[in-house]
Amino acid sequence: MSPTTRIHFMDYLKVFLSCTVIIHHAGQPYGGSNGFWYVQDSGVDSDLGAFFGINAAFNMSLYFFLSAYFIPLAYKHKGNIGFFKDRLKRIGIPLLFGFLVIIPLIMFFYYNEYRGYPTLSFFEYYKNVYFGFGEQPLNWTGPTWPDLNFGHLWFIEHLLIYSLLYLLLMNLFKNIKLPKMAFIPNNKSIFIFAIIISFITYLVRTKYELDEWIGVLGFIQMEYAHFPQYLAFVILGITAAKSNWIHQISAKVGTFWLSFGILLIILNVIGLVPHSRGGWDGDSLIYAIYETFLCTALSIGLIELFQRKLNRKSKWVEILSKNTFCVYVIQTPVLMGIQYALISVPVSGYIKFGLASFLGIVLSHFISYFIIRKIPVISLLFSGNNPRRSEKFVARLNKKTV
């Protein structure tokens, strides 16, 4: 298989995962997420708990896998200094912009709309509440004080950290011959991988529950409950770039694990899976095993399926794929506007969920492609969304990864 064709199915997979993220956030006001969100719609009686559990089990882990896959290739192509500068420009600048502009704006909206405190100007909020230079209000509703956070940009923050850690490790151990890490994509190795990550996940969740976010070192936004899966898939992505094991997944193996993942989804939907946020009990162990096997099964199955069925060039998919980085950054404020507008619409929460999902996907891509990419000054803040730069980069990688 030529390297040119190898990249195409990943475009499809990136677009698919981007949509799952938007849909996940689109459903937040409509019941079952048990997490913090910026828009509250108390007039709905829907429950999307099963959807949230299924989607959260695999989509970000697989997103980490795809992102990590390109880390060694970029490092090999650019070298130490070039890789460092590239990561700071492509990831660091959008992250900083989001941290200083996008997140404060959406938290400012939440503060004035839902917290019940006297209305503040944006400057007052930005200084006194977001950065915490003012006094903490009585009966503070949180989720933290001050409001300073990365919000949905935590994924980009982690990706930058993993990239820089990779750079550090490559330099620390460049003169040491380490054993090559190779993942063999057969049923036995996949099962062993899932079992190991399941029990690590369970042990972590005995102390840290699902949706419990911690500020590691004061600035790394971390949900420990999913961290073993995320880290494992980052490592899998790096090994895939070095050994190309993803191209060795047989149709038989991929079909088996995808079918198994679908079976696990059905068991969840019909209520046969004991949900647990964490702890030492049996339900916590069962759910950690269930979620990890669901994550692994769907990830392996989707990688093989997309590679086998969608490994072809598509102009529209390439355009959408180039939008995914920018879309990820802007999709939360876009969805907030849609969800807030839907509050007064007299339809069920399920219909609102469908509308918010569809409009969120369409508008996020529209804004990214027709507005952000067309304004040079703004597009610099989303350098990961630069289409010409991306095409040149992929073309060079193709020559180096035959």
Automatic annotation (TrEMBL):
Residue ranges constituting the Acyltransferase domain according to the UniProt record: 7-369
Superkingdom assignment: Bacteria
Keyword flag Transmembrane: yes
Record InterPro entries: Acyl_transf_3_dom (IPR002656), Glucan_succinyl_AcylTrfase (IPR050623)
Gene Ontology molecular-function annotations: acyltransferase activity, transferring groups other than amino-acyl groups
Residue stretches spanning the membrane: 12-30, 50-71, 91-111, 153-173, 185-204, 224-241, 253-273, 285-305, 325-343, 349-372
Pfam families: Acyl_transf_3 (PF01757)
Protein localization: Membrane
Entry's family note: Belongs to the acyltransferase 3 family.
Annotated protein name in UniProt: Peptidoglycan/LPS O-acetylase OafA/YrhL
